[in-house]
Amino acid sequence: MQPEQIAHGTVGTFTYVILDTDGKDAIALGERECSLQRRYQKVIEESPSTGISEKTRSALFDAACRLATATKYASAGTVEFLIGPDESFYFLEVNSRLQVEHPVTEALTGIDLVRAQIEIAQGGKLPDAPTPRGHAVEVRLYAEDPYNGYLPSSGRVLMLDWPSMPNLRVDTGIVEGSVVHPFYDPMLAKLVTWGPTREHARRRMIDALSQTTLLGLTTNQTFLIEILNRNFFMTGQTFTTTLESETWSKPDPPDVAGIAAAQALSKRSMDTGGSSGPSD
Q1: What are 241-257's pLDDT values in tens digits?
Q2: CB 49 within 8 A of CB 89
């Protein structure tokens, strides 16, 4: 396979845990599809992957488990592969830790990977190998302007309101009033949705993003919704070059952030008896 062909393939990630007493047992917890990237940073991740066959999926699981047992790895970890258009796959690297995206695997399997990792470190047994159920989608909410060369954004979070809905998980370290500096990774939060089908998970994520209020700095909130609504995503045709090869135009205001903010302000006003802020 030529390098330009590989570059248009998908990146499959595979998480496993292994018993640390004899280094012989490993289980596969499913692959995570992370082709949608910008500057080699993941933007959207999902599981299971729509870009591989069951035969390839089984081969990925087997390869990852064999690597784990051969190295006597004893913990939770992720083996990454690059997959070509013909579904040939190539080893990329091992992340010998829990990745940012581990909630995707947790949503699919029902296994608390943090707890499993700690128990294994203490000599515990591997959890039972589950059958993954449904579909999970994760987006990374970044402090950056995707319509201006992904220019980083900084400032104070003036208003923050996360949605509350079934099968939505929000992992974040910011609160209203937090100051986002330009010196660190721009990721503000991870949103993970689960659904019985990929379409359910996709629509739930669009709803979650549309109901999120985060004002005070520029984010990729609208960009994420646009990706989820594009035909390439709905048909599962996602590659490592997709975001760079597509044409993106900044939408006319009001965008989803402004609409969500108006709704959040209205709700706050109702909760406080008609006052949206402190009285003089």
Answers
A1: 899 899 998 887 656 66
A2: no
- 184-217 pLDDT per residue, tens: 899 999 999 999 999 999 999 999 999 999 999 9
Retrieve residue 35's tokens.
């082709």
d(CA 43, CA 231): 17
> Using CA atoms, how far apart are residues 243 and 37, in angstroms rounded to an integer?
7
Percent of residues, the chain, with pLDDT higher than 70: 83
Query: Exposed (0-12), middle (13-18) or buried (19+): which is 8, by Cβ within 10 Å?
Result: middle
DSSP letter, residue 181: P
CB proximity list for 40: less than 8 A, separation 6 or greater: none
Query: What span, in angstroms and rounded, lies between the C-alpha atoms of 277 and 87?
Result: 56
Q: Which of 105, 121, 123, 124 is nearest to 113 (CA)?
A: 105
pTM more than 0.90:
no
